[in-house]
């Protein structure tokens, strides 16, 4: 299980991130100021750090300097959305930069992208009572195996990794089938219907009018 440190002084935001990423199968730890974050980094190894900039005790820029020699990837999460702030954060060595307010689905996608870049992509994904092992390509629901075809599995992983994000039909088709989308939706729609039935997710995989599909978290 990958270990993520959340350094965020706004407790409501920290808790939202903690719950959302924990539901996806990550082990999360929260620090509510820069000093507490530094203490945790000194004691424990993390696969990724989500770091606010405007923190009590030690700000995010200073903490990033402390983290850089460790080689741990960092995503800045901050209300400082000016272009100059983004440039400064990225030049200092942050791997990504997310401006508040943000959608939790976008955060999840960025976390997955950075971890994948570092070769730390999560091999186990979880949504409620469904567990997915991307290495063995096994899926269980309430501990019982769910038999999926190759494309059904790939489609499920794509939906889970973009939970709560409306995905366009053409993007889903091209990512799962690996070929250009011609506008014919029968194949994709059929696979979505099968996933809904096999996982009992009729209400969880929703149709987004004129766009495509969304997995509700």
Question: Could you give me the name of the CATH homologous superfamily of the largest domain?
Answer: Response regulator
Integer-rounded radius of gyration: 19 Å
CATH secondary-structure class of the largest domain: Alpha Beta
Figure out the total of helices: 8
List SSEs in N-to-C order: EHEHEHEHEHEEEEHEHHEE
Structural class from helices and strands? alpha/beta
Question: Which CATH architecture of the largest domain is right?
Answer: 3-Layer(aba) Sandwich
Tell me the major beta sheet.
5 strands, parallel
What is the first-to-last residue Cα distance?
20 Å
3D architecture notes:
This protein has 8 helices and 12 strands. The protein has 217 residues and is of the alpha/beta class. The protein folds into 2 domains: 3-117, Response regulator (Rossmann fold, 3-Layer(aba) Sandwich), CATH 3.40.50.2300; 124-215, Orthogonal Bundle (Arc Repressor Mutant, subunit A), CATH 1.10.10.10. A 5-stranded parallel sheet has the order 2-1-3-4-5, sandwiched between helices. Strand 7 and strand 8 (138-141) form a beta hairpin. Helix 2 (34-43) runs parallel beside helix 3 (60-67), helix 6 crosses helix 7 and helix 6 packs across helix 8. It is elongated. The two termini are 20 Å apart. The model has no long low-confidence stretch (mean pLDDT 90).
Features:
12 strands; 5-stranded parallel sheet; alpha/beta; 217 residues; 4-stranded antiparallel sheet
Describe the structure concisely:
With 217 residues, this protein is α/β, with parallel strands linked by helices. Helices cover 41% and strands 22% of the residues.
């Amino acid at each position: 299980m990958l270990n993520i440190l959340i350094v965020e002084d706004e407790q409501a935001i920290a808790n939202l991130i903690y719950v959302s990423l924990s539901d996806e199968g990550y082990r999360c730890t929260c620090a509510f100021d820069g000093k507490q974050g530094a203490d945790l980094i000194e004691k424990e190894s993390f696969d990724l750090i989500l770091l606010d900039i405007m923190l009590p005790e030690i700000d995010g820029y200073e903490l990033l300097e402390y983290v850089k020699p460790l080689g741990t990837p960092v995503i800045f999460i901050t209300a400082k959305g000016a272009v100059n702030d983004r440039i400064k954060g990225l030049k200092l060595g942050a791997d990504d930069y997310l401006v508040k307010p943000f959608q939790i689905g976008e955060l999840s996608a960025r976390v997955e992208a950075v971890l994948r870049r570092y070769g730390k992509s999560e091999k186990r994904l979880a949504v409620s009572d469904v567990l997915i092992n991307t290495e063995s390509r096994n899926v269980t629901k309430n501990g019982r195996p769910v038999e999926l075809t190759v494309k059904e599995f790939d489609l499920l992983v794509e939906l889970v990794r973009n939970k709560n994000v409306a995905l366009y039909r053409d993007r889903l088709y091209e990512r799962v089938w690996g070929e250009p989308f011609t506008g014919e939706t029968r194949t994709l729609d059929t696979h979505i219907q099968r996933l809904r039935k096999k996982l009992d997710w009729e209400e969880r995989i929703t149709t987004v009018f004129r766009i495509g599909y969304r997995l509700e978290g």
